[in-house]
Design a protein that fits this description.
By secondary structure, the chain is α/β, with parallel strands linked by helices. It has a single domain, classed as Rossmann fold (3-Layer(aba) Sandwich). Helices cover 32% and strands 23% of the residues. The chain has a 7-stranded parallel beta sheet with strand order 3-4-2-5-6-1-7, with helices on both faces.
Length: 141
């Protein structure tokens, strides 16, 4: 049964969302998980790319943008139909990309933005009704 985790942050800014993604990736790659991050635009991809490289002063999170030759546990793309295998999909787009159906586990990072909240509620209901195991995680400040 596929699983969806909704990480609900108390903040409303996109910077907090990116920082949470970095922390989540840092934790999960230590557990040897592979992660694909779907982003809504090239500008968002470039911004997260930079954040992953500078996440910690003493280290970075190895990652690659799909289409580059580098291999890494974390991949980034804006292509909603890309054919990729990973343990987890982190969706940072408002809508659920077509590729989500191929993943056993999907994470949605929810901030206090009206558009993101509405889209997350809708996808939560759709996944629950489709038989997914869904979890709602309220993150502390």
């Amino acid at each position: 049964m596929p699983r969806a985790d909704y990480y609900v942050l108390p903040q409303s800014d996109y910077d907090s969302r990116e920082l949470f993604v970095c922390r989540l990736c840092d934790k999960l790659t230590k557990d040897r998980m592979s992660i694909h991050i779907h982003l809504p635009s090239e500008a968002d991809l470039a911004q997260l790319d930079q954040r992953l490289w500078s996440f910690k002063p003493e280290a970075f999170l190895p990652h690659t943008i799909l289409g580059q030759e580098l291999k890494a546990r974390i991949t980034l793309s804006t292509d909603a139909e890309v054919d990729i295998e990973a343990d987890l999909l982190i969706n940072l787009a408002i809508t659920t990309p077509a590729l989500a159906a191929r993943f056993a586990r999907v994470a949605e990072i929810v901030i206090q933005d009206p558009e993101i909240l509405a889209a997350s509620r809708e996808s939560f209901k759709q996944r629950r009704d489709a038989g997914w195991e869904v979890h709602n995680h309220r993150m502390p400040s």
